[in-house]
């Protein structure tokens, strides 16, 4: 799956799920539960113990899903994630060396930024999408304001996104959103309550549809 195809798939679903699973089995089951609700784009963060081998197992067993590696701070971690099968890479801040390695491998990179200066720096460094983090600090209005002078930059709000405000972020011009605990609740993951996670995924999907983005 090439870079353009990955980006198109994420744009079509509009929601990337953030998972901090304790095991590869939990990750796989959670991914299947999200898919039941219509979401197949998943970011596994480096703050998860054993993230790289977990990612490798997930991409091998569920090749039709889009698994990405998040909280990537350096080029070597990005390279290991790509070799393990990551379809996209996400950073929490502007990391030019990570952008460079992703461009070399033809892998989409979502680079974290917050201020207009950081957002422009990330985009000019080659980020495919700029992750606006933490999005809850200023809300959807911030996305709309920043997009006004630089509409060419694709933005993905992360942090504080829920089924109740996802439509606002998308209508403000977001390329997609990323959601963590509001989508994959820690208790549901720990209790292996897959039906609850599927229900949350469906709620996000319904909110995206209701946003009437055309």
Topology:
Elements: H1 3-13, E1 15-19, H2 24-36, E2 41-45, H3 51-61, E3 66-70, H4 75-83, E4 88-90, H5 96-105, E5 109-113, H6 116-124, E6 129-132, H7 140-147, E7 155-157, H8 166-171, E8 177-179, H9 186-190, H10 194-210
Parallel strand pairs: 1-2, 1-8, 2-3, 3-4, 4-5, 5-6, 6-7
Helix pairs in contact: 2-10, 4-5
Question: How would you describe the overall organization of this protein?
Answer:
This protein has one domain (3-210): Alpha-Beta Barrel (TIM Barrel), CATH 3.20.20.70. It has an eight-stranded parallel β-sheet, sandwiched between helices. The mean pLDDT is 95. Helix content is 46%, strand content 15%. Strand 6 (129-132), helix 7 and strand 7 form a beta-alpha-beta unit. The longest helix has 17 residues, at 194-210. Helix 2 (24-36) crosses helix 10 (194-210) and helix 4 packs parallel to helix 5. The two termini are 25 Å apart. It is built from ten helices and eight strands. With 214 residues, the chain is of the alpha/beta class.
Assign the CATH architecture. Answer: Alpha-Beta Barrel
The SS-based structural class is alpha/beta
Strand order of the largest sheet: 7-6-5-4-3-2-1-8
Task: Write down the domain tally.
Answer: 1
Number of helices: 10
Radius of gyration (CA) equals: 16 Å
Helix coverage percent: 40-55%
Could you name the ranges where pLDDT drops below 50 across 5 or more consecutive residues?
A: none
DSSP strand content = 15-25%
* CATH topology descriptor: TIM Barrel
Under the CATH scheme, which class?
A: Alpha Beta
Q: In angstroms, what separates the terminal alpha carbons?
A: 25 Å
Number of DSSP E strands: 8
What is the general shape? globular
Global mean pLDDT: 95
The biggest beta sheet is recorded as: 8 strands, parallel
Q: CATH superfamily, called what?
A: Aldolase class I
């Amino acid at each position: 799956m090439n870079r353009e195809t990955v980006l198109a798939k994420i744009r079509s679903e509009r929601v990337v799920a953030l998972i901090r699973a304790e095991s590869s089995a939990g990750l796989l089951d959670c991914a299947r539960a999200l898919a039941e609700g219509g979401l197949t784009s998943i970011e596994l963060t480096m703050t998860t113990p054993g993230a790289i081998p977990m990612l490798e197992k997930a991409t091998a067993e569920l090749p039709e899903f889009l698994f990405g590696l998040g909280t990537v701070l350096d080029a070597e971690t990005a390279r290991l994630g790509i070799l393990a099968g990551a379809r996209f890479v996400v950073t929490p801040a502007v990391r030019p060396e990570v952008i460079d390695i992703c461009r070399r491998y033809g892998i989409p990179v979502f680079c974290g930024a917050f201020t207009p200066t950081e957002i422009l720096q990330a985009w000019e460094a080659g980020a495919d999408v700029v992750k606006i983090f933490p999005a809850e600090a200023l809300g959807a209005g911030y996305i709309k304001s920043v997009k006004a002078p630089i509409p060419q930059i694709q933005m993905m709000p992360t942090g504080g996104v829920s089924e109740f405000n996802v439509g606002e972020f998308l209508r403000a011009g977001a390329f997609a959103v990323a959601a963590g605990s509001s989508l994959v609740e820690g208790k549901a993951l720990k209790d292996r309550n897959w039906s609850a996670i599927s229900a949350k995924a469906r709620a996000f999907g319904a909110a995206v549809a209701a946003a009437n983005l055309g």
